[in-house]
Amino acid sequence: MNAYVNAPISSLFRTLTPDELHHSLQTSLLHWDQNSDVWVFAYGSLIWRPEFDFIEQRAARLAGYHRSLCLWSRINRGTPDIPGIVFALDQGGECEGVVYRIAADQVKATFPALWQREMPSGAYNPKWVDCHTEEGHTVSALTFIINPQTDAYVPSMPLEQLRQVIHRAHGLNGPCIDYVLQTAQALKQANIADPKLEHLVQYL
Q: What Gene3D superfamilies does UniProt report for this protein, alphabetically (predicted)?
């Protein structure tokens, strides 16, 4: 089976311009009052490689979305011609992850790099969501949810095809398989159960 039979045509792929990135960031931060700390909900690589300073970290659960390998990666873990696949939040279920609290006076310095990392192709919809923390509190956090209207969305893939994609793809941040394995390990260390990912890792 050709592992890329359902991959998007590379000629259609484009990254956001600097102006588009800036507009997306500014639009998402309209919710922010400029004085409060900002929470970010992490469910994939941000758990084990946040790349920003934070003043607090908590385990958290998000209802209404689940962690899924449903996003073609054509920059960080693949290329336009040989895309990898990475995690996004997809509709339905719930997701256990981590929330980070970023100090208010660091938000403007922190978020441009975060946006460059997460939003280069605009495949995510940034969204403010209510996350339930282990302390019993609910915090409003910004997170990144798959945009199902883009050609980067992968609603489902046979296990063998998924394995081929993960083994073959390599992007700016390294091999796709490293990403999957490191995420699985980070979830385990954080005592977050993800049976579907655990089954996939055994198959890899």
A: Gamma-glutamyl cyclotransferase-like
